[in-house]
Amino acid sequence: MTKFSSTTPIYYVNAQPHLGHAYTTIIADAVSRWHRLLGDDVHLLTGTDEHGLKIQQAADAKGVTPQAFADSIAPLFEQAWQRLNITHDDFIRTTEKRHAVGVQKLLQACYDAGDIESDVYQGQYCVACEAYFLEDELENGNCPIHHTKTTYVEEENYFFRLSRFEDRLLKWYADHPQAITPGFRMNEVIGFIKGGLNDFSISRKTLTWGIPLPWDKSHVAYVWFDALANYITALGYGTDEKAFAERWPVDYHFIGKDIIRFHCVYWPAMLMSAGIEPPKGWAVGGWLLVGGEKMSKTTGNVVNPLDLIDDIGVDGFRYYVLADTAYGNDGDFTYEGLISRYNSDLANNLGNLAARIATVVEKKCGGLGPKPTLDSPLAQVAATAVSETKDAWAQVQPSKALEATWNLIRATNSHLENNEPWKMEVGEAVDRVMGDALEALRIVTILANPALPTSTQKIWSRIGLKGSITDLRIDADTKWGQYPGGVTVVKGDPLFPRKTA
Ligand code: MSP
C-alpha cells in the first residue's frame, strides 16, 4: 500500500489558534483526506511548540510556570482541530517525554559527527520569531517580520556548523528538483544556500525552559532545533526505531513561507549530520494576510477561526481556505470575500444543485432517484473533472482541484437549466435528465469530500446512498454510471443558506 505521510508546523502555545494556523492545518488535512480516498496509508502529524523564550515570557506575564501555561493552551489547539474536522493521526507536544528523548538523541548524533561546537554568539534576536538576525537584515533596527525591536544578545553558545553543508545541500536539491512545491520556492532556497550559510546557535545558557543538551546540562536546546525534531520524534526516533523507519522520510512538511529557511536549509542539514535522510518534500504556503499584514499575536490583527465557523459552518470555512487562494501565494482575508465565496460556490452552486435535484425528483420521479444513462453528455464532463481534480491534488493545488470539481457542478446545473425537467411530463425523459444529474452529483460529493467532509456526506445520504464516502476509492468509485436508481431522495434543510455580509 502506498504510504502518504505529512506534517503541519507545530504551533507556538503563546497564542490561541488563529486563522493563519487553521489555514496551514486545513490544507494538510484536505490533502491527507484526498490521499485516503486514493487508498493510501495516510499519516498526518500536528502538534504544539512549547519551549523557548517566547513561551517562558508569556508564562511569566501570567505568573504561572511555563508548563502550566503550555498545559492551558495546547488543548485549545486540539479542540480547534477537532472543531475544524482535522483528521490528524498524532498530536505531539514538545514537552512530552518521547520528544525529549528523540531531541537528545539527535543532538548527540550531530555532536558526535563533529558538527556542533562551542562559540560565542553576539547579535540581534527577535523573541517573537525566536530567531537571530544579522544587522543588515533588520529594518530600521526592527525585526523585518514583526516590526518590533530586537534584543542584543551575547553569550556562549553551541553552534551547528551549517556552513559545512552548502555543497551537500546543493547536491541534494539538484538530485531532488521536485522536492519543494510550488517550484518558485525552490529557487529561493537555492539562492539562499548559494549566498553562503552561517553557522547557527543551537543552545541557550540563559534560559532553562527547554531540553538540556546531553553533553552539557548547563545549556538547553535552541527552540528551533527542538521544534524541528518533532517531525522525527513523533514518528518514533529515539523511542521506536521500527515505527520511525516505517514512516520516515515523510512526503511533505506543510509549512508557511515564513519558516522556509528553518525547514529547507537548517533541517535537512541537521538530518544529514545525524545520518538521517531528509524529507521527500515541502509544500510551502503563502500567508493569509489581514489588511496586508501577516496575522500574528505580536502584530495584533488576529482573526479567530472559531468565530467564523459559527457564522458559515465548518465546511464553509474549510472551503474558503482551500478555494480562495492559489496555494503558495498570499491571500487577503476579508469578511466580504469569505461571504461572497460562500454564496457563489456553496449556496448558489453546490447547495442549489442538491436542492433542485431533490425537488424535481420528489415532484416528477415519485421521490425515487432514477438510474443514469450511459451515453450522457455529462459522463465526459465528469471524467475530465475527475482527472483534473486528481492532478491538482497531486500537485498540492487545492484551489485548482476544487475549480475542476466545480466545473462538473456548473455543467450539471446547466444540464438542468437546458432541459428544464421541472417543466417536463412525468416519464422516461425526465428520469433520464434526473438520473444523469444524480450521477454527476454523486461523483461531485466524492471529489469534494476532502474539502467538505460533513456536507458531502449529507448529500450522499440524501440522494439515497449508503455508507461513508471516506470508505470509497477515487479510481473505482468515480467512474460514470454507478448511481443505483430506485433509491429514496430527500431534500432536507438547506445545506448552505445564503448569507449577507
Ligand atoms: N513554532 C513555529 C513552527 C515550528 S515547526 C517545526 C511557528 N509557530 S507559529 O505558531 O508562529 O506559526 C506556525 C505557522 O503557522 C507559520 O509558520 C505558518 O505556516 C502558519 N501561519 C501563521 N500565520 C499565518 C498566516 N497569517 N497565514 C498563513 N499561515 C500562517 O512558527
Give a verbal description of the structure:
This protein has 501 residues and is α/β, with parallel strands linked by helices. It has 2 domains: 3-310, 3-Layer(aba) Sandwich (Rossmann fold), CATH 3.40.50.620; 339-488, Orthogonal Bundle (Isoleucyl-tRNA Synthetase, Domain 1). It contains 17 helices and 18 strands. It has helices at residues 19-38, 53-62, 66-83, 97-112, 166-175, 184-194, 223-228, 230-233, 241-247, 260-273, 305-323, 335-364, 377-394, 398-419, 428-448, 453-462, 474-477, and strands spanning 3-12, 41-49, 90-93, 116-126, 131-133, 151-160, 180-181, 200-201, 203-204, 212-213, 216-221, 252-256, 282-285, 288-290, 293-294, 331-332, 368-369, 487-488. The strands form 5 sheets. A 6-stranded parallel β-sheet has the order 3-2-1-12-13-7, sandwiched between helices. Helix 13 (377-394) packs antiparallel against helix 14 (398-419) and helix 13 (377-394) packs parallel to helix 15. The protein is elongated. It starts with a strand and ends in a 13-residue tail after the last strand. The site of 5'-O-[(L-methionyl)-sulphamoyl]adenosine (MSP) has 20 residues, from strand 1, helix 1, helix 7 and strand 12. 5'-O-[(L-methionyl)-sulphamoyl]adenosine (MSP) binds next to strand 1, helix 1, helix 7 and strand 12.
